Amino acid sequence: VIGDFNVPVAVAESIEAAVDGAELVAIPVPGSVQERYLRMVLPHLAAGQALWLCQGGGGSLLPDARARANDLLLIESMYIPYSSRRTGPAEVVVRSRLRVPFAAFPARRTEEAARILGQLFDLPRARDVLEVAFQNVNAIIHPLPCLLNWGQIEDRESEFILTRDGMTPKVIRAMEAFDAERVAVCRAAGLSTRNVDELYELLGMVPPPYRRRASAAAEAYEDRYIVEDVPIGAVTFASAGRQLGVRTPLVDSTIRLCDTIYAMDSWAGGRTMERLGLGGLDAPALAGALMNG
Amino acid sequence: LAETSCGYSNASGVTDLRRIAVLGAGPGGVSTAAVLAKRGLDVALYTRTGETIAAIVERGGVETDGSLGDGFVPLPVVTTDPAVALAERDIFLIAVPAYGQMAMLDTVMPFLRRGSAVVFLTGSGASLEAVAKLNAKDLDPNSDVLLSETMSLPQSGRFLGPTRVRIRIPSSKMRGAAFPGRRTAELMQRIEGVLGLFARPNVLDPALNNPNFLIHPAPMLLNYAAVERAQGQLSIMNEGMTPAVLRCMDAVDAEKRAVEVAYGLEPVTVDDIYREIGSSPDIYRKPGEPFNMKDRIWPRYVLEDVPYGTVLISSLGALAGVATPICDGISHVLSVAEEKDFFALGRTTERLGLAGMNVAQVGEYVATGRAPS
Questions:
Q1: Is A174's CB within 8 Å of B219's CB?
Q2: Which one of B229, B244, B339 has the shortest CB-CB distance to A261?
Q3: Residues contacting residue A195 through CB under 8 Å, at least 6 positions apart
Q4: Which of A141, A243, B290, B364 gets the most CB atoms within 10 Å of its CB?
């Protein structure tokens, strides 16, 4: 969608060299390795630089990042602003632009973030990074639909395309019930109550991928649909639900069964509200903490 | 029958005066009736709707293959008329899915007398739910009507045609018990030659060990979309049992065993249950078709095995303070997917008449029939 280009890209030999003097440092890696990248990059960043976690998930609230919230400008977006795929060693196909919501932490600095990102993209602003985290569509469309297709996914390994093979009417209905629990948590937290269809509208993907026959560009199942989207995603809004008195039985059930499938413990390893430094706060206190840091 | 070790005891050679009614004309009921008729017992087959039995009535019986050998077994009384099938019967074998058991008991109720024996084949706790119904008719399960249940059907049966059934009789006896458990010895005497049971301390043991409840819910959830797409034409035990599916199934089994331990029952793995009934865990752990027939999905794999299986395990667990997150999760996800509240529809401790009791009181109740005052 951005046309055919040969784009010269300078490849740095070290992290120091890559970030030295950069106004904006983007970390577009999946959530599961985001913490590792944060640990590598943070020591080399100097005051005044902006650090953008493209697949935010609340990463700026983790202790190491949060400690730099004043001298750096921490920005999170829901996802990378493109739907893209690497098709060769030095070739990338950009399928569509995504209008991913973004915010800074603390949110009183979102205006500063907009001045930087606005030069590059046209993106909508979220109230704060928690709203960004709760709007992660992958955490909505992946875990439960993958559970309901698990036998096929495991049987066919890398050939299962969720949006092509897995989104039956009943699966979509179950996913909507899952999403309704997430929306209830958002409502209790005073955050945007857009449902999954409305989030895809916001992203500019209409109809959403689960309501159309997948194109050839659709990607096959990957472990991160569960290994990432449950502990960084579902666990976050389930944990917020507990904190705010909103029951999320379907999300809880999904987490438990996904954990059984992958023999993991998403509550222990995942981004709970406690882990994000937001434990015990009610809705107004949450809004305040996220606004002011 | 030639087998001495099978679920049916050998006839003593003396003319048997007991009159038996089998209720339910699905594969379970028809094969039960056929096995008993073949043994020369006086058996009537009752069902609520005529369509399923029209061909059998016309033919006057069923053709069998499998454990009974190839041949025709006459069934002289096959009817939808309760008065014809149920009057003056001594033993009532109820062979319907769990969700039909209480309706069938209502049909039987007018024909129960002191001394009647009711056996829920594949009980799933039905005998406990039946207590209140009996009490309402001034029948006392402690002395009048003998209530009991088995873990599973005494044989497996599959229809090959409207009047043709393939029967496989396992090499060992099904778990079973009476309610109260102290009457199990009496039950064994009363049904000797009709059903051979592996006597258990109380009905919770056969109720919790229904193999379907242990092997169906997790695989059905984790293959849900495939079942939907295939419109039931999926051999789930052959095509759907990937390693992680088995891991979830085993997690259900582990929760079931924790519940057994809490109630003082001897815990048994699902694999050992399959070995015990002369089958094999290979049915679900290895490819290949049981019966040499391509299996298919039946709606009851969810509609029965969740509300009467995982919900029962969860509910008994909750009473005993045993956490059952996997069973809870499966029941919940499938409730949402099916748009049915299986926790509300299912066989919980409330429906079993156990609500308000603690574990020790439940143990006392199922053993002696005495509820805490």
A1: no
A2: B244
A3: A176, A179, A180, A183
A4: A141
Residue A147 and residue B221: Cβ atoms within 8 Å?
Answer: yes
Of B225, B328, B338, the CB nearest to A149: B225
Give the Cα-Cα-Cα angle A226, A230, A235 (nearest 5 degrees): 170
Max intra-chain CA distance, chain A: 53
Q: Which two tokens stand for residue B185?
A: 């010895």
Q: Which of B336, B338, B340, B341 to mutate to test the interface with A (most CBs of A within 10 A)?
A: B336
Mean pLDDT by groups of 10 residues along chain B of 373 residues: 40 70 96 95 94 93 91 96 96 96 97 95 97 95 96 92 92 94 96 94 98 95 92 81 95 98 98 92 81 70 96 98 98 97 97 97 97 88
Question: How far is A283 from chain B, CA to nearest CA, in Å?
Answer: 28
Cβ distance A252 to B329 less than 8 Å, yes or no, reads yes
SS3 content of chain A, % helix, strand, coil (to 5): 50, 10, 40
Residue B233, Cβ neighbours under 10 Å: how many?
11
Residues of chain B with C-beta less than 8 angstroms from the C-beta of A170: 224-225, 228, 337-338
- Give me the torsion for CA of B80, B82, B84, B90, rounded to 10°: 130
ipTM for this prediction = 0.90
Q: What residues of chain B lie within 8 A of the CB of A225, using their CB? A: none
Smallest CA–CA distance from B328 into chain A, residue: A253
What pTM was estimated for this model as a whole? 0.91
Rounded-to-integer distance, Cα A291 and Cα B4, Å: 78
User: Euclidean distance between the first and final Cα of chain B, in Å?
Assistant: 48
Whats the size of chain B, residue-wise?
A: 373
- Minimum-distance CB partner of B222 among A147, A166, A170: A147
Per-residue b or e along A253-263, where b marks 16 or more CB atoms closer than 10 Å to that residue's CB = bbbbbbbbbbe
Q: Are B234 and B294 in contact (CB under 8 A)?
A: no
